[in-house]
């Protein structure tokens, strides 16, 4: 009987070892699958975040262009108070675009900063007109500058949209 118990004991030990090794292998395999799934989920989340940020940037580009169009209309009407308010709003949108848009090149950020500076200059010209009684700014010249800025901003928006 002792031989019988020893042989079955040895068999049970070997079988237990095999079950343990297989269980350990399945555990490692499951952990690796879970890790891959977590990495894929994290990647999908990063892509979704980037897409949302890009859409937000595109909306801001659209808003900036809309405000510039309105500035042109207000300046044609010589509604300087309203135009000044829109200039301030536009500069805020442009700064947000420059600082908060992923995927912009240094050249594009520089172009946006140039637009900010152009609108500061225009705003200062309008302010000088009000504060010192200087002659009214040249509306046609200012609106040509605004039109050129619209083109620059639109080109950047299209590039961002296509990337």
Descriptive notes:
This protein has four helices and no strands. With 163 residues, it is mainly α. Helix 3 (106-132) packs antiparallel against helix 4. The radius of gyration is 33 Å and the shape is rod-shaped. The mean pLDDT is 88.
Name its key features.
163 residues; mainly alpha; 0% strand
Report a brief summary of the structure.
The protein has 163 residues and is mainly α.
Structural class: mainly alpha
Q: Uncertain segments of ≥5 residues (pLDDT<50)?
A: none
Level of helix content? over 70%
What best-fitting shape do the alpha-carbon axes yield? rod-shaped
C-alpha-based Rg, rounded: 33 Å
Termini Cα gap? 79 Å
Q: How many helices in DSSP terms?
A: 4
Summed over residues and divided by their number, the pLDDT gives a mean of 88
Helix/strand order:
HHHH
Q: Strand content of the residues, in percent?
A: under 5%
Largest pleated sheet: none
Tell me the number of strands.
Answer: 0
